[in-house]
Design goal:
By secondary structure, this protein is an alpha/beta fold. It has a domain of about 170 residues. It has eight helices and nine strands.
């Protein structure tokens, strides 16, 4: 009898151990499921927060009634808002500051100034001509041009756009020195004069004495640069002073440890129409 009792106790002992191990395993799996569900929930919340950041930036751009767009305006500064425990940072970049590869009068010389050699520049022109009125429909389409490499693409992609129709002008208030050089020719004395005018007396951007090009003062500014009045109209065909297209950059987090992030890069018209959208 004692032997049978001892066997029963041993059986019960091992049964308890097995049940305990099963309980721990189930608890561990359940805990993992909870963490996975929480991560997925934070991920979805972060995505919609990022989308809200894009919508907020578009609303701000739409409410900007200035007769110009310049590099020191509010849309260019990184801003932040919080909602329900989430944090969103957002800003915009002027797509009008980039050289338009879908320009109606795209020339080989401009492509060479962007860093392409003669052969590749000709290949780009021929590819674009083959697309007719559509032109380039997405940036990565450049890889379909014979001779295009990843290094060349990465070197030029931040200076070019395809999202402004066939408008060949660039915004004189926001274009960098490289793009001014593509438009005017590298080494043109007008580049330093334009940049100097934008920086003002203190030689810095983003300060109160910055010069702004508008439709009203464009002619006077260029005449002060030594450009003859008859030629001012030529330069008006090269430049705009206000933009309708912007690249919006948004980053959103919706987790306590800030490990869950969603990034969105979009190109949108001031009206709100989206031309490019990328989520990460």
């Amino acid at each position: 009898m004692r032997k049978e009792s001892g066997s029963i106790l041993i059986f019960i002992f091992w049964a308890l151990i097995i049940l305990s191990l099963l309980s721990i395993a189930v608890s561990y799996n359940y805990s993992g499921d909870i963490k996975l569900a929480k991560h997925e929930s934070d991920n979805i919340k972060a995505l919609y927060l990022a989308k809200a950041g894009v919508a907020k930036m578009i609303a701000e751009l739409n409410s900007d009634k200035n007769l110009y767009d310049s590099i020191n305006e509010g849309w260019g500064a990184e801003k932040e808002f919080k909602f329900g425990g989430g944090v969103v940072t957002y800003r915009a970049m002027d797509e009008g500051a980039r050289f338009n590869l879908n320009s109606a009068n795209l020339m080989k010389e401009s492509l060479i100034l962007l860093g392409l050699d003669d052969v590749l520049s000709q290949a780009v022109l021929e590819y674009k001509a083959g697309k007719g009125e559509k032109g380039f429909e997405f940036m990565e389409e450049l890889f379909l041009v014979e001779g295009m490499t990843r290094d060349i693409y990465l070197k030029m992609k931040d200076n070019v756009t395809i999202y402004r129709g066939n408008d060949s002008r660039v915004n004189i208030n926001t274009a960098n020195n490289s793009i001014l050089g593509v438009v005017l020719g590298m080494g043109s004395p007008l580049i330093n004069k334009i940049v100097g005018y934008r920086e003002g007396r203190d030689g810095k951007t983003g300060t109160e004495d910055d010069g702004l090009f508008t439709e009203n003062n464009f002619s006077g500014a260029f005449e002060s640069f030594g450009v003859a009045p008859d030629y001012v109209e030529v330069y008006k065909a090269f430049f705009s002073v206000k933009s309708d297209f912007f690249r919006i950059l948004v980053s959103a987090s919706f987790s306590e440890n800030k490990e869950v992030f969603k990034n969105i890069e979009a190109v949108a018209a001031r009206s709100g129409k989206i031309y490019y959208w990328k989520e990460e």
